[in-house]
Amino acid sequence: MARPIAVGVGGAGGWQALAWAAEEADRTGVRLVLLHFCVPGSPLARRTGEPTPAEVELIDPPLARALANVRARLGGQRVALRVRAGDPAECLIEASAGAGLLVIGAGEGGRTMRRVLRHAHCPVVVVRPGAQGRGAPLAGHVVAGVDGSTAGHAALEFAFGYAGHHHLPLAAVHVSPATLDDYFYDDVTLSTHFAAEPAALELLATEVEPWTFKYPAVPIRRAVLCGSAADGLIRSGAGARLLVVGDKRRGVIGRARTGDVPLTVATDAPCPTAVVPLDQSEGAPL
């Protein structure tokens, strides 16, 4: 991922988002851009360009400490601070055009999260503290929602890349309201309660197969879960390292018919959630 990671800092959940983004930047070696949104009238908002550490320390000591800690970890040349005034959602969407990944806190709920997830130009990770979930079937996995659509393909591509880079197992999950139970399968063992193999396992096998050649070291599980798409994906995230869903970017009518699955999952999942859009565009570098 050559383009930088952008992260919204400050506000509800912003420090958790920064911790996650700094860890990701450290592992991947890319630049990290902190996006700070000023209250109206803040002296930082009147600065042109990047404020100096002394200015940040004087006006916003918590931000100054966070910036210093991240620069000490990653190196000063790999960390930038961008101060923005105005609507946070618009600023985050604009910044996403020049980023490879946008990270926001789960506290950025409601209207801001909704607008960012629907209009961002790059994958968005919504960070919340992960539940322990040690007994959960997919704990410790990167979980990808798969439904055979183009959006599902994008989610699976992102999930395999993340799992391969972080040396994590991957779980490909399909949710079906026609399924009466949850089924889990890998290349070693079958679920002990298989009465009959779910038809969706063939879909999962077909979708996963091309990526097994590119990422042969990634252990893979497949799961067919019962219930609605959003509920099943939220359950699959218990104890997961990352839950990845694709966004079909449907209009108002489409969302009214089946619900806004990416928004619901990102809002309620018990782990960090990546929402991958189909229309990723590359803007000016941050």
Would you summarize the structure shown here?
The chain has 286 residues and is of the alpha/beta class. The protein is 38% helix and 21% strand.
Helix content bin: 25-40%
Global geometry: elongated
- Low-confidence spans: none
Mean pLDDT: 86
Task: Tell me the CATH architecture of the largest domain.
Answer: 3-Layer(aba) Sandwich
Total separate domains = 2
Provide the structure class. Answer: alpha/beta
**CATH fold-level topology of the largest domain:** Rossmann fold
CATH superfamily of the largest domain, by name, is HUPs
Strand order in space, largest sheet: 3-2-1-4-5-11-10-6-7-9-8
Biggest sheet character = 11 strands, mixed
Q: Briefly, what CATH class of the largest domain?
A: Alpha Beta
Global Rg: 20 Å
Topology, number of strands: 11
Measured between the Cα atoms of the first and last residue, the distance is: 14 Å
SSE sequence, one letter per element: EHEHHEHEHEEHEEHEHEHHE
Number of helices: 10
Percent strand equals 15-25%
Structure description:
The chain contains 10 helices and 11 strands. The protein is an alpha/beta fold. The chain has 2 domains: 5-127, HUPs (Rossmann fold, 3-Layer(aba) Sandwich), CATH 3.40.50; 142-273, HUPs (Rossmann fold). It has an 11-stranded mixed β-sheet with strand order 3-2-1-4-5-11-10-6-7-9-8, with helices on both faces. α2 runs antiparallel to α3 and α4 packs parallel to α5 (110-119). It is elongated and about 65 Å long.
